[in-house]
Amino acid sequence: MIVAEDGVLIREGITGLITRFGHRVVAAVGDGEALVEAVRAHRPDIVVTDVRMPPTFTDEGLRAAIGLRREDPELPILVLSQYVEQTYAAELLESAHGGAAGIGYLLKDRIGEIVEFVDALDRVAGGHTVVDPEVVRQLLSHRRGPLARLSPREREVLALMAEGRSNAAIARGLFVTEAAVAKHINSLFAKLELPQDEDDHRRVRAVLAYLRG
Amino acid sequence: MQVRTALAALSMRPTRLLRSLWLVRSILYLATGALLGCTTPVAVIWAIHGELTLGVLAGGLLAYLPVIAFGPQVARLERWRLKLVDEWPVDDPHVPVDRPGWGHRLRFRLREQVTWRELGHVFISGSVMCWLDAVLLVFAVWFPVTFLFAPLTNGSGLESWFIVGCGVALVLVAPYPVCAWAGARAAMARAILARRDTDLGERLVAVTRSRARLVDAFEIERRRIERDLHDGAQQRLVALNMQLGLARLELPPGSPAGEPLAKAHDLAKQALTELRELIRGVHPHVLTDRGLAAAVRDVAGRSPVPVEVDIRLPERLPRPVEVTAYFVVVEALANVAKHSGATRAAVSAAVESDRLVLRVTDDGIGGADPDAGTGLAGLADRVAAVEGTVALSSPAGGPTVLRVEFERLARPDEPTTHEQRATPEQPATHEQRAIRDERASHERPTTREMQATHEEPAAREQRARREERTSTAGA
What we know:
The structure holds two protein chains of two kinds. By secondary structure, chain A is of the alpha/beta class. Chain A has helices at residues 8-20, 32-42, 60-71, 86-95, 114-125, 133-141, 152-162, 167-174, 178-191, 199-212, and strands spanning 2-4, 27-29, 47-50, 77-81, 103-107, 129-131. The two termini of chain A are 33 Å apart. Chain B is an alpha+beta fold. Classes of the chains: A alpha/beta, B alpha+beta.
């Protein structure tokens, strides 16, 4: 994998903990362009990148991620941010719309929960979508449009789906059966007017519907 | 209520008015007024001839001309005299002359509107008002006094005592016309001679500009603080949080260090959350990056009350307007959440003939009072600094509508790196990259880059001074 982060402390930290969990960091870079070059050189299994990096210190990392994803729709990317910005999350997920590979947007705070962070990393690498619970919480607090039609339980299911959980994991989290989860998911797909399609795409689109508000 | 003018004195109880000094002050005011105006012609007439002919009268009136020419000096005297019947301070309406020299001084004064008002005032008071002063004094002071002393001049017949009775009645009544006329004269003098807002036209423009610069300087400072926090404390806290997480992971289960370590970890996480909120309050990153619409949507997303956002802007707004509009929305939505009891709110923004019109509405209980807290008032101050206006309609029972308009959107704003910067759909050209790289090679690229592009000259000067100071301190 490749780590892009301009703060040396954090970059070293992430590299260290990922190595500890048996992954191999092929390149650790400090800005967006180095990231793009490193990805082209190494073809990693997953990219972890900060949003704000030199030289503009605005959203270099995010734009690099979106660009990379356009080049290679199969490249899993996890974006780390200091902020809960649904705008960024929405842009990122929008760009990942076409690909089957995983995509993620997490607050940097989550790195502290080592096990969960590594788990999220694995889920993204495994093709899931992971959105920070904080972002999801804000999005869930109140929505209009088709989302307003969802029942509270369906929203919970959608929230967990946005975090990249499988049906089984959602069922465990809500203490219901997997069949019940499947029923909720079908119902919310219908309410969001998502046509029959390959399941994963519909899941991503459901989450996207949230992010777009 | 304290009485501060002769007009206000009219509302006092008659007994108090008679005992107060207002009557004396009014008489003095009118007497000096009559003296000022009448002396010149009367003296001239007297000097030329004892008998009044048309030529003498014309000569006397001609003597006015030099007096009128000294209008500004007379006006100064008038303003000073005004204290007799009007205790409110009167400011000198003249702007200080910026350069020495008599010729320049004269031209400077003649360009001032107030100079012409002063000339007009002297003309009117010299030609009409002073005579009226004199007439009133004769009726309200001279007559009663002579009436009272009628027995001395007329003998002590019944007729004399009748005249004394009339005099007493006049003395009791006279204070009213005297005070009224003195008060009216003073009010007129104040209206003509006191400072008006327009007299300060240029000064106000200068103040407005300096205020705008100050706001810009604050904004730059806020951005700098946000960057410093982001690059410094926040990075370290994230790293600390990560190390604590790792430490907990390495700890054998049941270790006595487990509990304090878990607490330390929680504290680090809390600190991180608080710092993030703080930084957002100082300056929202997404605003700099993505503009008002995105930033407002994020604020709306965090609001406990559902907020509908409809922001249609053809392009990025001038930076000061953008930042101010953002903080208006933040403050307004905070108020909606805290006080309105609304179940939903809406934020809309659109450009209408070069003005940005921003509306924040809610369906709450209404009755928002701009004077109740510092929030709304502070907001109006902020908006005023970028020449905007705030209108609030909040009848009891709602709905509350806050409408903010920003003027002069056409003002050319400096292009910023964010606007020049390629969007994700258009990869950056090599030139743009080269520019960015060059900037990045500076010691503090963000600081230099952002300030160099956004700041006004004054702010740049200020930064230069600051840097100078820093380097001196460093040496």
